[in-house]
Amino acid sequence: MAFEGLAQRLQGTLQKIKGKGKINEADVKEMMREVRFALIEADVNLKVVKEFIKTVSERAVGQDVMKSLTPGQQVVKIVQDELTNLMGGEQNPIQFARKSPTVIMMVGLQGAGKTTTTGKLATVLRKRHNKKPLLVAADIYRPAAIQQLETLGKQLTLPVFSMGTDVSPVEIARKALEEAEKEYHDVVIIDTAGRLHVDEKLMQELKDIRELSKPDEIFLVVDAMTGQDAVNVAKSFDDTIGITGVILTKLDGDTRGGAALSIRSVTQKPIKFVGMGEKMDALEPFHPERMASRILGMGDVMSLIEKAQDSVDEEKAKELEQKFRTQTFTLDDFLDQLQQVKKMGPLDEILKMMPGAGKIKGLENAKVDESQMGRVEAVIHSMTIPERTTPEIINASRRKRIAKGSGTSIQEVNRLLKQFEEMKKMVKQMTNAQQKGKKKMKMP
Ligand code: GDP
Predict the structure, then answer these.
(1) Which residues form the domain of 144?
(2) Nearest atom of ligand 1 to the alpha carbon of 253
(3) Closest C-alpha residue for ligand 1 atom 9
(4) How far apart are CA 259 and CA 236, in angstroms?
(5) What local confidence, expressed as pLDDT, does residue 70 receive?
(6) What is the pLDDT of residues 71-108, one digit of tens each?
(7) Of 252, 271, 274, the residue nearest 86 (C-alpha)
(8) Residue with the nearest Cα to atom 22 of ligand 1?
(9) Where is this region: Disordered (predicted)?
(10) For the chain, is the Cβ count within 10 Å smaller at the N or the C terminus?
């Protein structure tokens, strides 16, 4: 997971100071030495580390902290605040044009994830902002890049504007804007050419496209895994063409986090989104305070709720509630639930968003066995419809057949049936309690 090392070190260091009823300058100094080391290990830009340590130290040795009743906790709060500030403070939303269409230019080096992110961004714009985006293939040097965008467009049922490789990118942009106007697209996302390195010809071309299309946003896509290189790339793109924000990709990988923590400070430009996977729904708005909270092991309940809202189908939720109430909940519904939870993303990532999860013994490095969920699904799939609706009929010979059919064991089938029974019992108790208006209920 991203930030793993940093999170462990910082949490360890802060844990030591947190409970202290009294702290002095020497304590703060000692703690800051460890924090400094943790940040350097995480590949954070050295200048950024220095400033961070200075700010936190100054605030931490302030009289109001030292004399307070809970100085340790206050220091932790200061670290959290400053970590949030370091990453940009508030979440920075997309700037839409007052007059449609909003033009977004996507820039970045080859392999950073620019084309993939173009598709993901269009998905976000359509789903969360109700927009009708037009994707523009302006990388004329790599026919494969145009094809890649067209394939994404098909997959997402989004229109892609392309004119092949013989027309200049500026001309493509011009025609795309005309097309957008004609077809009432309110957002135009231009996927520009990438290079292996920053080069002058490319920068000139980007400037020309910028002049013509007057973008509302210029998003630089950088790969979080490249650490300080990503920061340098951001600085040079910003110096030459001026970017309005950064999209940091591959934050689902085991990056140490240096880029995420340094980019804002070095370029003064916000990270607007982060890429959390290869799939088209894996682009998330970047929330500095939530990220700081996750790094410090305080969980991220807001993101968890949003994820749940995104994945849960409201109609189904209502239906389910009704089934709970009338106690007609079947194994098929159980399967449905399982699939909805899976849609929220990898379970170990979800667990880490829960406050205090890091403190539960053995959970800090928990790797949820997702194959286990697959086995449960297989077991249910091997049942007949009557078995799923009335599991009571599943006798020994049926259990044997189901185990064989699903490639599992009789024990696993038994375990699932037992869990399902317990869940039903719990639901029954809860509904009874609700009906009787009891305030307290016993949960097994
Ligand atoms: P481009 O050359 O910048 O257009 O890069 P592509 O869009 O072709 O992406 C390069 C590779 O990075 C592809 O294999 C993508 O699937 C992958 N990729 C892009 N974004 C992410 C991300 O957020 N997480 C992961 N794990 N992979 C990503």
Answers:
(1) 102-286
(2) 26
(3) 113
(4) 14
(5) 83
(6) 888 888 899 999 999 999 999 999 999 999 999 999 99
(7) 271
(8) 250
(9) 432-444
(10) C
CA of 114 to the centre of ligand 1 (A): 7
Distance (angstroms) between ligand 1 centre and the Cα of 106 equals 14
Q: What is the pTM of this model?
A: 0.76
Domain CATH code at residue 331: 1.10.260.30
- The last residue of one of the domains, among 34, 55, 86, is 86
Residue 101 is given by DSSP the state P
Integer-rounded Cα radius of gyration of the chain: 26
Same domain, 272 and 384: no
Task: Say yes or no: 269 and 348 in one domain.
Answer: no
| Ligand 1 binding pocket includes 110 (Cβ within 6 Å) | yes
Residue 142 confidence (pLDDT): 85
DSSP annotation string for 181-193: HHTT-SEEEEE--
**278 Cβ below 6 A of ligand 1:** yes
Dist. CA 253–CA 197, nearest whole Å: 23
User: Which segments of the chain have a pLDDT < 70?
Assistant: 1, 301, 311-312, 347-348, 351-352, 354-369, 431, 433-444
Ligand 1 lined by 254 (C-beta under 6 Å): no
Say whether 345 counts as a known binding-site residue.
no
Q: What is the distance between the alpha carbons of residues 329 and 327, in angstroms, rounded to a whole number?
A: 5
> Is residue 37 located within the same domain as residue 157?
no
Domain count, the chain: 3
Q: Is 116 in the pocket of ligand 1 (CB under 6 A)?
A: yes
If asked whether residues 112 and 73 sit together in one domain, one would say no
In a domain, 210, yes or no: yes
Is the CB of residue 377 less than 8 Å from the CB of residue 410? no
- How far does residue 282's CA lie from ligand 1's centre (Å)? 11
- 330 Cα: distance to centroid of ligand 1 (angstroms): 40
Handedness of CA 28, 34, 36, 39 (dihedral sign): negative
Regarding whether 252 and 108 lie in a shared domain, the answer is yes
The answer, yes or no, to whether any atom of ligand 1 lies below 6 A from the CB of 113, is yes
Q: Are residues 246 and 165 in the same domain?
A: yes
Is 119's C-beta closer than 6 angstroms to any atom of ligand 1?
no
